[in-house]
Design brief:
The chain contains eleven helices and no strands. The two termini are 20 Å apart. α1 (3-14) packs across α7 (122-158), α7 runs antiparallel to α8 and α8 (167-195) packs parallel to α11. The chain is mostly helical.
């Protein structure tokens, strides 16, 4: 079986397992929920009195940045990857869950050996699995973008405004957002392949995520420069999308750092899969 056939086989399996079907649906729901929460910010700020100019100035809130008419606000609300959110965005959390389940279930239920025999080699199975993760994440990302667009145009109409962002700018942001989700998914899946264990891989991924959140939190209170943590995967992802005002890197630099992390994780997974005992 060719590498394309291995990818198709993994995609076929992934789209028919109930737990993975539920996770795929949760990715779309997470994107919709995140977008809806952003569109609700102006009304929430009004309810708590943040629209009062004096109160807003005291809190350091730039009211113009949260105006539904602001193109920057609209981009944040239509961002499918949630890159502007602090901590770990919900959609990234669910995408990681989807990515680790695809190879993780094969290890958990002892299906790796016969899959390797079926496709004709360890590397072919590993590459096919990573390809399936990338394709599935990209497809779910496209569906999520369509759902977010529907929410966005509906929310804009309810708030009495129009989407002023150009189509090309919106498509470019979605392309970058979906691309970051794909890289994060492939990176996470490669960690599972390298460690041969769903549990150990989740521990490593959670450790890296928690480290990033802790460093960002401490750095914010200590007044450290955001560039100190730009090498972390989630920070690089936020920079790669180019929407977050707190992004420490340029779009190109963010893509470079995130791509480097993905390449290292994939290389680790492919080297390990050739050496360990199945």
């Amino acid at each position: 079986m060719s590498g394309t056939g291995a990818t198709a086989s993994e995609l076929y399996t992934a789209t028919r397992v109930r737990s993975l079907q539920v996770t795929i649906a949760l990715v779309v729901l997470a994107a919709v929920f995140g977008s809806a929460m952003v569109w609700a910010l102006p009304s929430l700020m009004t309810q708590v009195g943040a629209q009062d100019a004096e109160a807003a100035a005291g809190m350091g809130v730039d009211l113009g940045a949260y105006s539904p008419e602001n193109p920057g606000f609209q981009l944040m609300a239509l961002d499918v990857s949630g890159s502007f959110q602090s901590g770990m965005p919900m959609i990234i959390l669910v995408v990681i869950a989807l990515a680790v389940l695809i190879p993780g279930m094969s290890f958990r239920y002892g299906a790796v050996t016969w899959k390797v025999l079926l496709v004709g080699g360890r590397l072919r199975w590993a590459v096919g699995t990573l390809g399936a993760v990338a394709c599935l994440t990209a497809a779910v990302g496209v569906v999520s973008a369509i759902a977010v667009a529907a929410v966005g145009y509906g929310a804009a109409a309810v708030q009495g405004t129009n989407i002023s962002v150009s189509v090309w700018e919106l498509l470019g942001m979605w392309l970058r957002g979906i691309g970051t989700l794909v890289l994060i998914a492939v990176m996470s899946s490669a960690v599972v392949i390298a460690l041969r264990s769903l549990g150990r891989a989740l521990a490593v991924i959670a450790g890296v995520a928690v480290l990033g959140i802790l460093l960002n939190t401490v750095g914010t209170f200590a007044g450290w420069e955001g560039g100190y943590f730009s090498w972390l995967p989630l920070n690089a992802a936020a920079s790669a999308v180019g929407v977050s005002p707190q992004a420490p890197l340029s779009i190109a630099a963010g893509w470079g750092v995130l791509t480097l992390w993905t390449v290292l994780a994939v290389a680790w997974g492919l080297i390990r899969v050739r050496r360990y005992t199945l």
